[in-house]
């Protein structure tokens, strides 16, 4: 479809193909060139402001007589546009695509064409490398604290006219910008309306802690439930993939992480590395990671049942039992080690980077060795807790790591005091908590298992071909 020479008609065409009224980052700049109505469209964050200002200054000097002397848009470009990368275009689809790729489009009344100016600057140099979600393949860029640039990271990966960047302001004092990124017509409108309603009800002075402050005000009934209702990511490729799937991304200014909504338990089973390797390797990594996550919950409670004689194992496994007398019961050893591991994590977090290796040496070797020699802990307790702690780091979500840890501690306590039936009761209790938990959208936390949706469930349990995944 070609554009016309009428100013209002072309504006209506652009508005009908782009969500300009919904997206804050698509800028519409009307102005007058040589007595003719004109308009600029560009994506905020992609433009070199100094070059744009110089071009506009030169346009404002054009007189009506000079403007009328140019019969075609190419005559105007050849005589008045000094920028190197510029061309005229009549096809509406190509014009819209040029805008979505970060270029500037300009229309001047009287010419049946748009001027496309390549004034792009990419925010890649300002991006930060993801610290938590690392991968051997794929992009190295990560979200930063600037909301506009974070939107640009997503725009570079999704050039769909239906992509909406909807802006809201939260906080009576801070007036913090919060952006909802989604594809109109793909994202669930009910979920979008629920999120917007939740944002409108947020009563807070300032989002001093960024996305964490926002989540606390949105999920007021989640205080005693450690299960995460939001998945965080610091990678633009993960955020873009979830937008294409129909999720809604919440971007908070001054925060280098974005929130993915809605989120259920199966969303935490996926990892970016699964999709940067072949299908077989991706499935292997996913299965290993998920088995390890389940094992970290069950390993120490089952071992406790084993040494207490609550469950039967073949005599072949007797070498796993402590051979020496231990004054502190194994239950209390595991509980103390759980706290000790958290203490080491906190100490490492607050230790300056040059001293990090020293901290690891003191915590991992010296303290571990001498607590065994003094009789505080057995070799087996320290070894198995170290294995469990390593398993915790396989899951990139810190919130899910703590949920797994709390589930393990519940099973430890119940198994230690009530034996096998305490363990079974703990498993049932954990499943009841998960089954009664709902996402922010009001869906079941176990979806797509409950309610059952095999196509969705297959996509989260197994790494299938990209062409068959919604990526």
Description:
This protein has 471 residues and is of the alpha+beta class. The protein has 15 helices and 10 strands. β4 and β5 form a beta hairpin. 31% of the residues are buried.
Could you tell me how far the N terminus lies from the C terminus, measured between alpha carbons in angstroms?
29 Å
Secondary structure: number of strands:
10
Helical content stands at 40-55%
Which regions are unreliable across 5 or more consecutive residues at pLDDT < 50?
A: none
Please tell me what the overall shape is.
Answer: elongated
Count of discrete domains: 3
| Main beta sheet strand tally, sense and closure | 5 strands, antiparallel
* Number of H- or I-type helical stretches: 15
Alpha-beta content class: alpha+beta
Give the SSE string: HEEHHHEHEEHEEHHEHEEHHHHHH
Main sheet: strand order: 1-2-4-5-3
Average the pLDDT over all residues and give the rounded result: 87
Task: Determine the strand fraction and express it as a percent band.
Answer: 5-15%
Output the radius of gyration: 29 Å
């Amino acid at each position: 479809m070609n554009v016309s020479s009428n100013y209002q008609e072309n504006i209506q065409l652009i508005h009908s193909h782009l969500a300009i009224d919904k997206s804050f980052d698509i800028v519409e700049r009307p102005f007058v060139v040589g007595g003719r109505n004109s308009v600029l469209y560009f994506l905020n964050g992609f433009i070199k402001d100094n070059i744009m200002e110089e071009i506009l200054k030169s346009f404002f000097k054009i007189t009506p007589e000079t403007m009328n002397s140019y019969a075609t848009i190419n005559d105007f470009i050849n005589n008045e546009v000094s920028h190197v990368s510029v061309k005229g275009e009549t096809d509406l689809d190509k014009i819209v695509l040029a805008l979505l790729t970060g270029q500037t489009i300009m229309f001047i009344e009287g010419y049946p064409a748009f001027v496309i100016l390549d004034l792009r600057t990419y925010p890649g140099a300002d991006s930060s490398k993801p610290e938590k979600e690392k991968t051997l393949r794929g992009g190295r860029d990560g979200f930063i604290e600037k909301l506009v640039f974070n939107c640009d990271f997503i725009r570079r990966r999704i050039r769909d006219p239906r992509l909406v960047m909807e802006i809201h302001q939260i906080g009576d004092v801070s007036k913090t910008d919060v952006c909802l990124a989604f594809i109109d017509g793909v994202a669930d409108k009910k979920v979008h309306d629920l999120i917007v309603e939740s944002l409108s009800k947020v009563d807070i002075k300032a989002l001093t802690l960024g996305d964490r402050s926002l989540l606390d005000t949105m999920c007021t009934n989640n205080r005693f439930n450690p299960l995460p209702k939001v998945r965080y990511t610091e990678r633009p490729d993960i955020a873009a993939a979830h937008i294409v799937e129909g999720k809604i991304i919440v971007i908070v200014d001054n925060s280098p992480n974005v929130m993915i909504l809605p989120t259920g338990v199966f969303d935490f089973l996926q990892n970016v590395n699964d999709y940067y390797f072949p299908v077989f390797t991706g499935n292997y990594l996913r299965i290993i990671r998920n088995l390890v996550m389940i094992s970290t919950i069950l390993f120490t409670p089952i071992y406790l049942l084993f040494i207490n004689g609550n469950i039967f194992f073949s005599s072949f496994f007797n070498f796993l039992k402590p051979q020496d007398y231990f004054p502190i019961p194994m239950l209390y050893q595991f509980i103390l080690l759980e706290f000790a591991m958290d203490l080491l994590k906190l100490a490492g977090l607050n230790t300056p980077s040059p001293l990090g290796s020293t901290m690891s040496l003191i915590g991992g070797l010296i303290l571990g060795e001498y607590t065994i020699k003094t009789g505080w802990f057995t070799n087996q307790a320290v070894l198995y807790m170290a294995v469990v702690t390593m398993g915790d780091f396989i899951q990139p979500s810190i919130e899910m790591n703590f949920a797994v840890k709390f589930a393990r501690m519940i099973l430890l306590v119940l198994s230690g005091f009530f034996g096998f039936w305490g363990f079974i009761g703990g498993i049932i209790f954990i499943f009841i908590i998960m089954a009664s938990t709902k996402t922010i959208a009001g869906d079941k936390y176990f979806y797509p298992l409950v309610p059952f949706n095999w196509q969705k469930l297959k996509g989260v349990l197994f790494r299938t071909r990209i062409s068959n995944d919604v990526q």
